[in-house]
Amino acid sequence: MEIRHPYLLFLGDVADALAAKTALGIVDWRPEWCLGQFRLPGCAADAKIPDMTVEEAARAGVKTMVVGAVNAGGVLPDHWVASIVAAIEAGLDVATGLHVKLSDVPAIKAAAEKHGTKLFDVRHTTERFATGKGTKRPGKRLLTVGTDCSVGKKYTALALEKAMRAAGFDADFRATGQTGVFISGRGVAIDAVVADFISGAVEWVSPAAAETHWDVIEGQGSLFHPSFAGVTLGLLHGAQPDAFVVCHETTRTKMRGVQHPLPTIREVIDLTVTCGRLTNPAIRCVGIAINTEHLSEAEARRVIDEAAAFHDLPATDPIRFGMDGIVAEIGKHWGAKGAGQ
């Protein structure tokens, strides 16, 4: 799916900023696409962009209203429907990452059919994917992988895209999750694809390209997570990454939602190489991205320096300290613009 921008971000009446994390993530990485936010009375989240009605947004040139808020169960509250219908009546497309399909709500479906606007359910792609073939295709690819879920794989991939472009690389972020799709305007939520077609969907997300072009592919889950390892493995095989970056949150001891201990960075590197060689025998780790949000700056630098020394790889916190070291590592192996050496 390809979602038109600029966006109006609908925050509804959510109780806190965490419930609006989709909208806030879009603003963090694509502020130029976000012309305004639409909030209902009582909304406790604020994306720090202008408040707009749907009519004001349409006059300003907005193309799509993104439902950038979530709630338990991913349902669409009944009292949000009128706002979505109003956006459609103003001529806007509407996109959501909720589990419920917009077209399953009669009032929304009828309004879209009447006004000729598009509905995008990011978790429910209409694209039909082939099974993965594992045949090497032109272009270069980098995948972010994790010691756990929610450790910064999306933010690391986006920071890498930005840093690689600044260094002269031809690089594009490729989204495999709902927020990533909104940030890039295209992609597929891999966790909603039928298992047999996950690797094929990733081949579709990152197709053949020029030999010097890099796709920076957003990772999902973890090879060590008992709930989500299947998605992670399918993504790894479909991505055929030439390079990967391990993402880690240093204060955790157990994986999210389960009692399994967190694997070490070395364990993730070794298993990613072992499994990744099936579709790319030349796969290699080029760096470590550590989420140090809960550490002081001094502690963060110490942890990062220790990881870099222990693994003999560049390490960083992408948000705090940038990606120059990892970009330099990529250049060392593939040349300043990724052409290969």
From TrEMBL:
Residues 129-327 form the D-glutamate N-acetyltransferase-like C-terminal domain. The lineage of its organism: Bacteria, Pseudomonadati, Pseudomonadota, Alphaproteobacteria, Hyphomicrobiales. SUPFAM superfamilies: P-loop containing nucleoside triphosphate hydrolases. It comes from Methyloraptor flagellatus. This is N-acetyltransferase DgcN. Residues 42-124 form the D-glutamate N-acetyltransferase-like N-terminal domain. InterPro entries: DgcN-like, DgcN-like_C, DgcN-like_N, P-loop_NTPase. Signal peptide: none annotated. NCBIfam families: DgcN.
